[in-house]
Design goal:
Blueprint (H helix, E strand, L loop, with lengths): L1 H18 L12 H22 L6 H7 L3 H33 L3 H16 L2 H9 L1 H4 L2 E5 L5 E6 H4 L2 H26 L3 H9 L4 H31 L11 H12 L2 H30 L1 H34 L1
Antiparallel strand pairs: 1-2
């Protein structure tokens, strides 16, 4: 009888130890193949950087000479200014278009859909050239009563300068993309939130600004950051309408000096520097709007740990009781 009891007690004791085994210090096994791939990748990258750094055709001394020249910096300021203004206008118009696209008003929804269809369906370069040559179609821009007298009129060439053409082309094109991004973010919010605001008697506008949009920001911020980075690069297209942005400035230099590659490298390095800063800023904003999700995820993990501990505490007496039989 004693032998049988000890025989039964041994597995039970082992099971209890297995339940209470601490896995806090557990670690993944050493992966030799993964470290080997990392080593090969770093070796190839170092070799590529060495080749680029020692290639005299890049003209690195010329790159360093022109990197902070006044001409290049003025073009950089124009690029940044165009990005900020066009992106701000595009976000505002895109928000209005997204709300109109989701409204129950068939006229507003149709007009917003038509706008988005047209500006997303035509190349940005074509739109910029069209705005720059608007005077060919309309020598004068006027405000008039339909089929009635003209209230005011302006010469189109006086209004549509390279700057206004660039802002109009970039902003209106960006608005079409931002409208779809914002609409997707708004649709990601649980419909129960909207029903709750209606139950509390909130107006649709108040519910939109206080409840829906803050929750939708977690879905809106990442693609908006991508659009901002794309806008930085899209400003290079305004060089075709004689707008003195960063690319136009380096083109003006290499047209005189014939140092094409070094001057293009100046522009490339500036674009990479700006987009890298924007990537860091986007990461901070994403973490800010995702803090609620992280909190709920942490709570779920804590609940799972507590449940596992409770299960283990319950299992030990049961195993001990089983062993004593």
């Amino acid at each position: 009888m004693t032998q049988n009891t000890s025989t039964l007690a041994s597995p039970a004791k082992g099971d209890a130890e297995a339940v209470l085994r601490d896995v806090a210090n557990a670690h993944k096994p050493f992966r030799t193949d993964r470290w080997l791939l990392w080593g090969i990748t770093l070796l190839i990258a170092a070799n590529f950087l060495w080749i680029v750094a020692n290639n005299q055709n890049f003209g690195w001394p010329i790159v360093f000479q022109w990197f902070t020249e006044a001409t290049v910096l003025r073009g950089l300021y124009v690029t940044l200014g165009l990005t900020v203004v066009a992106m701000a206008i595009g976000v505002v118009i895109g928000l209005v278009l997204a709300i109109a696209r989701m409204s129950n008003d068939r006229l507003a929804s149709s007009l917003a859909g038509l706008y988005i269809w047209f500006f997303r369906g035509t190349p940005l370069l074509v739109q910029l050239i069209f705005w720059y040559n608007l005077s060919t179609l309309f020598p004068e821009i006027s405000i008039a009563i339909p089929f009635g007298p003209t209230l005011a009129s302006w010469n189109t060439n006086d209004l549509i300068t390279p700057m206004t053409a660039a802002i109009a082309g970039l902003a209106l094109n960006e608005a079409a993309y931002m409208a779809e991004i914002i609409r997707g973010g708004l649709l990601s919010v649980d419909k129960g939130q909207i029903e709750t605001t209606e139950a509390f008697g909130m107006t649709r506008t108040r519910a939109l600004w206080r409840i829906i949009i803050p929750q939708a920001m977690r879905s809106i911020v990442p693609p908006t950051g991508n659009q901002l980075i794309s806008m930085i690069k899209a400003t290079s297209l305004v060089s075709v309408i004689a707008m003195a942005d960063l690319l136009y400035s380096v083109q003006a230099v290499y047209n005189r000096t014939f140092e094409v590659i070094p001057m293009l490298m100046v522009a490339v390095i500036w674009y990479l520097f700006i987009t890298s800063i924007l990537n860091v800023g986007q990461g901070f904003i994403e973490r800010y709007y995702g803090r609620g999700e992280r909190g709920s995820s942490t709570t779920r993990k804590q609940d799972k740990v507590a449940a596992a501990a409770l299960s283990a505490a319950t299992a030990v007496p049961a195993l001990a009781q089983e062993a004593s039989k």
